[in-house]
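Any chance you'd type out a single protein's sequence alongside its tokenized fold?
>
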Amino acid sequence: MIIRSLVARSGPRTLGLARSSSRSSSRPLRRFLFTETDSIEAATENSLKQTQSLEAQLNAQLQQPVPSINPATHGTSAALSDNVAEQYYMYKQQSKQTGKLGTDLSPHYQPHTLLNHPPSPADVTLELLLASQAHQGHVTSLWNPANARYIHGIRQGIHIISLEVTAAHLRRAAKVVQEVARRAGMILFVGTRDGQDRAVARAAELAKGYHLFERWIPGSITNGQQILGRCQTKVVNELDQDIPGFEEQLYDRPVLRPDLVVCLNPLENYVLLHECALNNIPTIGVIDTNANPTWVTYPIPANDDSLRCIQVIAGVLGRAGEAGQKLRLAAAANGEITYRPAQDLRPSQSERSEAPDASAESAENTESPSSRMGKNVPRAQVDEAGLVDTDEMETKLDEVTNHESHRTREGRSIKATS
């Protein structure tokens, strides 16, 4: 009872004190807001006066007067829309006058172009080689004197390779690749440095050859029967179509060797070049100023450290191989074979039984030399004269043929792929 009476008595007094305190605190806040509003209005008026003074100065100097700002309509939605339209119209006028100014950057360098669309030998220009940094050699202290005929001069202690010589040697190497591909030769592209794998694989894909971008196994050519003896081979016709039925006859044949080797970094693949020289295999290599040009058969003096230069050279050689393959297939479509076919390959008995009506010409091509000898001389006369027995001669000739050496029967001319 005591507490309630105290609260009831003290309630109105405390409420009156709260109301009086709120009134006293709101007065300074209103005064502060009024002063801030007045200052903003004063600043706006000052800026408007400055703008009008600038308009007067511009109107005095320009022939066409600048429209003045109307304080009543300035800042409204209609004024803003008119201002945007005027600015857009001025932008279109300026773009029409200045749109043709400046430089054109359309033929800029795109890294994927050299891989997706490599240049052909006809597209080799000095500008392309210069842009790919093919002219930059090594410092003069690392040069090989055998490269003196390829060097144009010295700049800041670095040898500069003559781009005219580079273009001439590149076109010559492209012609060699094209002719080897036209004669159905095996072309091996080698590039074991970092970043060269895509260029090497692309060039081999265009030329229908082989590529190597990891590591050359020493002895793959000189001792290829032990290293590559288990690689599977197949027989194809002049149109690159697989011909089954010769699998058993390919087991005892020697391994295939490349007819041309394209090496993009000869310094790291000296063993490969040495093996090619021992087996009379022509080679093409990118020779920098610190390399020996006598290591390869067809040197291309250029910068072997530039990845862009390697892509240009590999693309040009790949395009040359593609052109050679097209010429070979076109000649094969017309019935002309541009290479020496494989020797000592006979169709299986199943194929003979399936095609009994084969032409006489194909039968003569598959005959052994001993059967042709028997046809030239009648068997009755031979047996009566006692000169030779045809069956025994056929057996002996087959044995000699099976034990014939690789060079004698020219096994490298087989049109096969591994």
The two ends are 112 Å apart (CA to CA). Residues 2-61 form the longest helix (60 residues).
